[in-house]
Amino acid sequence: MSTARIVASNTAYQIIGKIITSATTFGVSMLLTRYLGVAGYGDYTKVTVFVGLFTVATDFGLNAAYIQLDAKKTHAYFPSLLTTRSLIALVATATCLVFTYLLPETSTGGFTSPVKFGVLLFASSIFFQSMITTANAVFQKAHAYKDATTALFIGSLMSIGFIAIAMPYASQSGRLFAGLISLVLGSCVTAGVSMMLAGKKEHIAIETQTKRLIELSTTALPLGITLLINVVYFRIDSLLMSFMLPKESLG
């Protein structure tokens, strides 16, 4: 296949992936607002925005560093990428849980007990999303965005399906948790399919050489710091509103 056709094909799959993401977000939002109401959707926003801060932090520019280093053909750097991101995801999840415990709790606003419990349920999505991001590095290097779109499509269908099935039968107080668990399950499916497809192109293993882990991390550091600042810049407003406004206003 010519270079032009490869670029056109992968661009098309990326566009399809964006459409799937937008459609899924719209569908999930419609279902959640229908069953949660304004106040419940406000709590959902608090949970997803807070966890999202730690999820995006697991990117840390590692994919770009992996592609740069792997192009040298001196070593297979995918085990280093997988190991480094797994460690970062575990640290991010633990940090998320610690901060959840320390967040101020009120009866009407801020991070109430149900919101904190929602964070605990949703925190596992940090690891699943990190695996999706890791697999995407393989798809990017191999010009195989079709695989990324396939995994995203399957996971998105599962998320919407789980929500559509679980929400009508959950109690009013349990609908928030049912929605969050449904999203986590969908993310788990996407991660599983992504890693399965990535495993056909790269050997999935744990890196045992500390030197390669350090090399990958230091290469990614400048971009990683930039991404972290960018995350704080774009998410801090929602986080501040979580403390300053009642959940109905946030919803």
Strand and helix layout:
Blueprint: H1 3-57, H2 62-70, H3 78-102, H4 113-122, H5 125-141, H6 145-166, H7 175-198, H8 210-244, H9 247-250
Helix pairs in contact: 1-3, 1-4, 1-5, 1-6, 1-7, 1-8, 2-3, 2-5, 2-8, 3-5, 3-8, 4-7, 5-6, 5-7, 6-7
User: What's the helix-strand series?
Assistant: HHHHHHHHH
Q: How large a portion of the residues is in β-strands, by DSSP E?
A: under 5%
Total helical elements? 9
Q: What is the approximate shape?
A: globular
State the end-to-end CA separation: 49 Å
The biggest sheet, with number of strands, parallel, antiparallel or mixed sense and barrel status, is:
none
Helix content: over 70%
Structural class: mainly alpha
Uncertain segments are none
> Can you count the beta strands?
0
Overall pLDDT level = 81
Radius of gyration: 19 Å
Descriptive overview:
The chain is mainly alpha-helical. It is 80% helix and 0% strand. Helix 5 runs antiparallel to helix 6 and helix 5 (125-141) packs parallel to helix 7 (175-198). The termini are far apart.
